[in-house]
Amino acid sequence: MLTGTVVLAGGVLLLPGGASSAADEPAVAPTPQRACNAGSRPETSIQGRVPQRDYDSGRARQGYSCNTRLFSHIGASGGFKVYRYVDAAGHTCVFYDSTRLAPTDLPYNVGSGGIGTFVVDVSDPSRPRHTATLQTLAMDSPHESLNLNRRRGLLAAVAGNPATLPGLIDVYSVRRDCRHPVLQSSIPYQGLGHESGFAPDGRTFYASATSGYTLAAIDLTDPRHPATLATYYGVNYHGLRVSPDGNRMYVANIGTPSPGGRVSVGGLRILDTSQIQARRPDPQVRTLSDLSWRQKSIPQAADPLLIGGHRYVLESDEFANFTLGPGLVVAGGYEADAPVGAARLINIDNARNPFVVSDLRLAVHQLKNRSGPQKNDPGANSTIGGYTGHYCSAPRYRNPGIVACSMIGSGLRIFDVRHPYHPREVGYFNRVTYPNTKPNGAGGLAYSAPAWDLRRRLVYYSDGLKGLYAVRLAKAIVPRHYWD
User: Fold this and answer.
1) Rounded distance between C-alpha atoms, residue 9 and residue 79, angstroms
2) Does 89 have pLDDT greater than 70?
3) What ranges does the record give for the region Disordered, renumbered to this chain (predicted)?
């Protein structure tokens, strides 16, 4: 819970609220798996693991799949966000950022298609075609802030990296021809950059600085002239997701770790943003609740969903442990006893009393499995994530049926969430990079929030060292209403 009141620009206040208990959280256990079909190449070890013996034998080069197959591929690098969009003329595009850690990725990216945010025409998804690269300052290094508002056809990002960057927002229109986005504005704003959120009506873009301790609300009513509505100081927020009416924000709250600490004190924070949505002067933002959970690592994002008439968020954590630098949160290497947060479904019917209903996690995330042979896997020892979680996404807000999570070295994971208290993993797809073949390469590097085309049974995601994949899902794991 936020301690005290934080004074904001223009005299705005961020008001504290109550905390919720995680006492009734279900036991932290791996999500049960569905059997793989005949065309699959299943994992050879426990759920999510790429064992050393598969690197030695060459098996890992074939990749791993369950109820999925490769449909198409383009590029040789990737970042944190993937979006699919159909414009007014019927063109279908995918947008994705190309770098994970600017500027350290720069030498590799220059030799792998360049830097920037990539635009790919997938009107024929079997033949993806790169049509543009957005290279304004924020699009060159958006970190985790790339965001799309489908209602207004706006693609926006702020300049960012893990340490945050000075506030600069780029806004493009993709509505008329998504293959060639049109720059609307590129201007500074009051705050710093790292992650973001978009109000569903497309009028408000939110930017969080994470370890820069700012949260900015930016008016995009006229995307050619963005204006900062308010800047909040003293909060350590990550992903920001907004309710359909714009009046609630679901915040991945990193909190303020104690010096030398390994685990944050944050979790899910639910904010009342109605005064910003209503364009009240000097808007106040009130904390409605805070929730933590067992095996929490670094909260990443919490996407709102409606399933069977009940409201949930699909929350994901990233990494397994971190150390503190001067004002920074830095991911560390392998530690057998470090908690792995993975992902979970949280009931938010009562915004003042959210609670975890189930976990989306793999056997490789369990503490009892982290202390065994896994510690010798090249993927587990990667300093940039190991087998841990990063981003999840759903194909739609109302009754999505299935969701997908990028779990770095374990690849793309597909979960059936029609019964939120009893989810099942129904598929996966993992392409493995061999150690020392590419910078920071070991295992898979699936970081991105996936995008969806379930009419064709496709999921798009990017791998940090291999580019953009379109993955075809077996009919048996896709709810029938998507493809009938």
Assistant:
1) 32
2) yes
3) 19-59
For 229, phi then psi, to 5°, come to -80, -40
Q: In what order do the strands lie in the sheet with 182-193?
A: 147-149, 154-158, 165-173, 182-193
Cβ burial, residue 4 (10 Å; 0-12/13-18/19+): exposed
Comparing 256 with 35, the larger pLDDT belongs to: 35
Confidence bin at 113 (pLDDT 50/70/90):
low
pLDDT at 326: 45
* Nearest-angstrom CA–CA distance, 223 and 259: 41
| CA separation for the pair 91, 89 (Å, rounded) | 6
Cα–Cα distance, 280 to 102 (Å, whole number): 37
Angle in degrees, CA 215, 233, 169, rounded to 5: 35
**Residue type at 394 in one-letter notation:** A
Q: What are the distances in angstroms from CA 326 to CA 36, 211, 260, 385?
A: 47, 10, 11, 21
Pseudo-torsion of CA 287, 293, 296, 300, nearest 10°? Answer: -40
Average pLDDT along the chain: 88
pLDDT band at 438 (very low <50, low <70, confident <90, very high): low
Q: Please tell me the predicted confidence (pLDDT) of residue 126.
A: 98
In this structure, the dihedral spanned by the alpha carbons of residues 153, 91, 159 and 333, taken in order and rounded to 10 degrees, is: 120
**Two structure tokens written together for 263:** 């685990």
